[in-house]
Specification:
The chain is of the alpha/beta class and about 425 residues long. The chain folds into two domains: about 230 residues, no CATH class; about 120 residues, no CATH class. The chain has 15 helices and twelve strands. Strands 1, 2, 3, 4, 5, 6, 7, 8, 9 and 12 form a ten-stranded mixed beta sheet that branches. Strand 6, helix 5 and strand 7 form a beta-alpha-beta unit.
Amino acid sequence: MRSEIVAKAEVLRFLAPSYVDGVLSLPYQFDDCEPLIERIVFPGAPAVLPERAAAFDSAVSLLQTIAGVSYYKALLPPRIDLAPLSAARAALLTDVYVQGLGEFAVANGIDLRGYVAFDGSAPCPAATDLGLARRTLVPIGGGKDSIVTLEALHTRGEPVAATYVGSSDLIAACARQSGAPVLNIGRHIAPGLFELNRRGAYNGHIPVTAINSAILVCAALLYGYDGIAFSNEASASSANLTRDGQPINHQWSKGWDFERAFAQVVRSEVAADLAYYSYLRQLSELAVAQRFAALDRYHAHFSSCNRNFKILGPRPESRWCGECPKCHFVFLALAPFMTKPALLAIFGRNYLDDLALAPAFDALLEWGAHKPFECVGEGRESRAALAALAERADWREDALIQRYRRDIAPYIGRVDIEPLLQPIGEHGIPARVF
């Protein structure tokens, strides 16, 4: 239950940001309360070059408004005090605050459509080429996807930096394993936000990838990079469910709609020579898993279990909790492309031989349940992976494989894995690395 004090905010204000000695301060204010100040730390960053000052100001504004979703969602004030924006930026932000908070809205029983809007009446500023150096920031999260991107770009001769936001020993280990230069950017959420949560403010899922994308745009301008290559695959665009006509997607800010709109704003309003894209956009989760399976030098270091990356609360003692949808899906996605002993060495046990996990895998299959609110592949990918394993002698006797063959496969038909391993669909990958 939200406290009466917390529920009374009427307006969220975006106060003037500042950048000094590598520290970017982003202040927010509810009504006339004490400002909440978020700080982004760019280690060893130089002063802003004069020829990039206007672009950097535009990037900071974009970051502050996108990161503001973390604060807005706490109290959901009916008014956001912000100067008019370009039509493209206003549309992007409206989607960040509505689509990006879709899962949050479902969890809290609210509907933000029509409640959030940004004024898009300002003229669009014209971005110019900044002469950024040909090199690419590759955000890594400790999991398989970003490692595939990092290795693929390295193979193509693209100068890269393994980049991550926040503090994580696990991500740092993967970064070191890559041998690439490492850039670790600090993000320090205003402590007052956690206090609001403690007092009963709204809380829930936010579009973190959108925030990190905007942080990396600022970083690209400060350090001089002309590319930002995320690792969001095709299935990230698929909704988990539809509620009252609105698709709800846990991974909305990893999807193609966000990528396309964000890239347009960056190229037209920040820097014309800065490319923002996902290198894996045309690939399914299974296709990414197939590529990662061959990168065995990372197998002892990576983890896709999101419980390792929580801001607050306990984390698993090992790299895999074995309980969350992400652990189960990554195990299933890798299984068709690895030997069974190698896979069990990574995860420590065989999830597919545990009948207690049947409901969890049913959700991954979208069999009597919607896709979990996690970064997992589509139901057809899980079905294809299980179908492939059901034909292998080393897997077919495991409890959940037997159950799939007996109780599920007869009703859904065969799902062939091969078509899911081929690139397909739209993308924004620059020709130089495509």
